[in-house]
Amino acid sequence: MWEFLTKLKFPAIVFISGVLFAFVSLFNAQDIAKLSVTPRLTLFYPGLFVGLILVIGAVLVMLSQENLIPTVNLSRARKTKYGFAAQFGRTKINVHFGRVEKIVGVIESSGSRHAIVLPANEYFDDECLAAPNTALGAFVQERFGSSRSELFREVASARTKLVTKGQFEKEKGKLESSFGTGTCLYIPNPPGVAQSLILAAVATKRAGIGITSNLTDICNALEHMFAVINDERICVATLPLLGAGKGGLSPEISLEAILLALSVAIRQRKCGTVETINLVIYRDNDDSPPVISRATTRRMLSIASYMHARYS
C-alpha cells in the first residue's frame, strides 16, 4: 500500500490532505489515542468544501497518470472523409469503410507506386483469383472484367519464380503445389489497372479441414509485403482485413493483428519508402453497417497509435 502511495507522490498527499480536511469538518476528535470521535453539531462547511475539492482533484490526477491507468485520447484517430486516420511515426494509417474494389477508385493514388494488397491462398491458383465472396475475387471481377484471363496468365508466370514448399492435398484426391502462407506474389503492371498488385498468402486449404487463417500467417505476410514494398519503392499500400473472410478470423482480431504488425514494422524501420497505408474495413454499401463499428474502429486505431508513440 505504501509503495502504491509513494508512486503517486503529489496526488497521494493531496488526496490524504483532502480526506483529513473533510474528516475534521465532520467530526470532533476527543481522544486521538483512543480513536474517540463524535460528529460535529455544526458542520464546518469551508473545510468540508476544501476537502472535497482536494479529494476530487487528486482522484482525477491519479486517473490521468499514464503509469497507473493509461488513458487514450480518441482524437489520435481523426475523422476523414472515408473513415479515420492516425499517425504512426512518419507513416500515416488510414482506415476506410467500404469495398476495396470501390475504394481504390476514389482514394489518392500514386500509380505503380501504389500497391493493392489482396489476400490469397497458399497456391495462388485461378480458383483463388476467381473465388466469389472474397476480397480478391470481388476485386478481380470489378477491376479487370474481360482482361481477367490476362491477369491469370501474369499470376501463373509470377508463380514460376516462387519456391514451392511441397505438394499438399488441397481437396480430397487433388494435390497442389503450395508456396507457403506468408508468401507474397508481386504483379507490377496488371492489365487495365493503374496500381500494382501484391497477393499475400494468408490462408491454407487442406482436404478435410477447408480454408483457415491464423495470426502467424497475417504477420508473416505483412513482413513479406514490406520486403516487396522496399524492393519496388512503393509509397502507398491499400489492403482489406486479412483472414477475416473465408479464413475464419473475426474482423476485430484481424484489424488488431494488422495494426500491431504494422506498428512493429514501422518501429523497426522495415516500412522503407511507404508513406501511407490504407486499411479497408468491409461495408457492403453506404446504407449497411461496417463489419467493425466506427466507434470500435476509432478506439482500436487510437490505442494502436498511442502504444506506438509510447513505446517507440
- What is the CATH domain class of the largest domain? Alpha Beta
Beta-strand content bin:
15-25%
The main sheet comes to: 9 strands, mixed
Summarize the amount of helix as a percent range.
Answer: 40-55%
Give average pLDDT, whole number. Answer: 86
Keywords for this entry:
single chain, 312 residues, alpha/beta, Leucine Aminopeptidase, subunit E, domain 1, 2 domains, 9-stranded mixed beta sheet, two-stranded antiparallel ribbon, 13 strands, disordered N terminus
Describe this structure in words.
The chain is α/β, with parallel strands linked by helices. It has 2 domains: 2-64; 74-311, Leucine Aminopeptidase, subunit E, domain 1 (3-Layer(aba) Sandwich), CATH 3.40.220. The chain contains 10 helices and 13 strands. The strands form 3 sheets. Strands 3, 4, 5, 6, 9, 10, 11, 12 and 13 form a 9-stranded mixed beta sheet that branches. Strands 1-2 form a two-stranded antiparallel sheet. Strands 7-8 form a two-stranded antiparallel sheet. Strand 1 (27-31) and strand 2 form a beta hairpin. Helix 2 (10-26) runs antiparallel to helix 3 (45-64) and helix 8 (215-232) crosses helix 9 (251-267). The longest helix is centred in the N-terminal third of the chain and has 20 residues, at 45-64. It starts with a helix and ends with a helix. Mean pLDDT is 86; it is low at 1-6.
